[in-house]
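Researcher: Sequence of palmitoyl-CoA hydrolase follows. Predict its structure.
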Amino acid sequence: KKGICYRVSALLYPLLGACFWASVAGYKPVIIVHGLFDSSEDFKNLKMFINQSHPGTNVTVIDLFDRSASLEPMWKQVEGFKAAIYPIMQNAADGVHFICYSQGGLVCRGILSTLSEHNVNSFISLSSPQAGQYGDTDYLKYLFPQFVKSNLYHLCYTGVGQRISICNYWNDPHHRDLYVNSSDYLALLNSERANPNATEWKKNFLKIKKLVLIGGPDDGVITPWQSSQFGFYDNNETVIEMQEQDLFLRDVFGLKTLAARGDLIICSVPGVQHVFWHSNETVFHTCMEKWLE
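Model: Prediction complete. Tokens:
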């Protein structure tokens, strides 16, 4: 009997090993896009979390537009990141996953909207101002010391202002018409201004399998914090949640379709400040891990 058991074990263990490595090889590559003033160095913890939970995953943090270069116009960043990411996609027959942090979440939306042959499965938007930004934050005071949120529109909604990334998604609820007519980036992505590419961009965006929107009330930078989940202020600075937003109700770029498909995931985590989202292990296990298969 011992001999039989040994022979079975000798056959079984290599088989189990082969199954294990087949499952490892099955993890899709993960592409990480950083945010304002970040660099690829800031994502060591997130890479570690991914490799601990999904051993063997190919994780690439795109090393472009680091630090002050992250102030470059958003469309310029979209084209740069797209050129770096596309070869990774081409080498991934089963597709890739995106984790896009803060401003990077808006860069990734630009890529997903304009790249018809993308193969992104999960698009994880990690505390990103998806509906825009309007707040007196430390970032604002550092970048524009002579401005506060109520008068930044004087700069942002000009040709000069639109050459600064943050102005491309600055969304002043008290100057809605100026935003719609001046925003060269977010107003186009949201089809808030007439966009001849809107139908194609929506079709491209809806090729994703899952949209995961992560944010929380203690963020301290994304303002309102609900912008990370497509909520935003009305002209009284009352937050209107995503499901009541015009861009959702009219399904302008696919949010309502994703929700109807069951592919729109909202993950809210209290107690996390903006700069710690990508290094918080609880956030990873709660909001990201299961979408990286």
